[in-house]
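Q: Predict the assembly, please.
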Amino acid sequence: MFTILLADDEERIRRLVSDFLRRDGYVVLQAADGGQAMELIDQRLNSIDLIILDVMMPVYDGWSVLRHIRSKNKDVPVMMLTARTEDTDEVFGFDLGADDYITKPFSPIVLSARVRAIEKRRHQHDEGIYQSGALSINEVRREVCVEGKTVELTPKEYELLIYFKNNQSIAASRENILNAVWGYDYFGDLRTVDTHVKKLRAKLGPCGTMIETVRGFGYRFEGAKT
Amino acid sequence: MFTILLADDEERIRRLVSDFLRRDGYVVLQAADGGQAMELIDQRLNSIDLIILDVMMPVYDGWSVLRHIRSKNKDVPVMMLTARTEDTDEVFGFDLGADDYITKPFSPIVLSARVRAIEKRRHQHDEGIYQSGALSINEVRREVCVEGKTVELTPKEYELLIYFKNNQSIAASRENILNAVWGYDYFGDLRTVDTHVKKLRAKLGPCGTMIETVRGFGYRFEGAKT
DNA sequence: AATTATGTGAACACAGTGTGACAGATTTGC
DNA sequence: GCAAATCTGTCACACTGTGTTCACATAATT
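A: Predicted assembly structure:
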């Protein structure tokens, strides 16, 4: 989920832009002036992924809101909207830590492209994190989350999950799995795999169904259909 | 066969490019505007292997067509043609899922090189997938689809189908089949094969007729006539 | 029409899988 | 270093799915 805070005093623009962004799958919070923007930022800055600020707003202008955000030492990306004037504005904005800058009037297409660019930049920053549906695996932190909540896995369960993640959509026989996870020199019961799969499924809760049984063969891990 | 849909409003470019591609052995469908492109895509997206879209087109522009394609959740490769402008366009295109990007004016040689690159990428991706008519067998996933819908096969049914696939157009006696699928040391009733063939035919639905009876001998699997 | 080959459905034994319990191995906390 | 807690691998049981055979129906061949 990618949440965007949109602050602009023109209702027409808010509606146009938010409709467009929603159609692209983003969640959009709206603020009609700098005051409302400040409030929303104070309340839920941690769950906001991008902030779009109009420069000219009642109560507090965009620069003030931007300054407020940066004073909180949060590096959430901020995009500024401003009427076409001299470039000084632009320089000013970048100095305060704006990430992008769009002059009014703009086409929603361009805006949405810039938003995507920022989202992408952010996601490649998340390198090493696997995500599929409600399941996310952070291999650096060695942490697995389902629906945002951390799930405690034992070492074997974790390694098994990593194996599945690295072999998505591939039917894996019990032998394949045993060789890969337990090592090629391990000669144990094939059904050990079953037991661990069972436990893993249980711990993954709603994501447990991502491990499919291929009857008479083994298992197959399926990333969420998007 | 590799089919390319080429959408560009300039007739001169269409002819130049399609001549060039045809000489390389590709089949080229042409669309003179975004509307025609949309129509062709709706009608026969499944038989198209690559789409080349001009960005500036009447009716619908290239981005809209691209969005339409992706909304169908098809990962057919798309190549965008655009006049040299700002990079934002490019970012936009890649975000929407364009696979390649060529700025006008371009040389047909370059275009055809890029097309070959995409074709290559695609084909190594298709490795291990058998397709014939409405039947497709993904041996990596150990999954069989008929008319796009997954068909659940038991292990024996699956192995039998794989045997048939590997022995297309060859009359196979029941003994051949029994030896190959059940193993040379299996001594069961020859008619067991019949039962499995019957079940397999039923599960394959419209593709069941691909398994032909060779009376007095055995069976023969026939891939779809193209 | 008689004969032979194949299609079809039912019955039954058995193999594959999910599941919980348990004992030994390993790790953790003190 | 010791006890407690946790993890791991195996097993047994229940249940469902699968393979095989058989008997009979239907179709093809003579």
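Chain B has a mean pLDDT of 80. Chain B touches chain A through 13 residues (CB under 8 Å).
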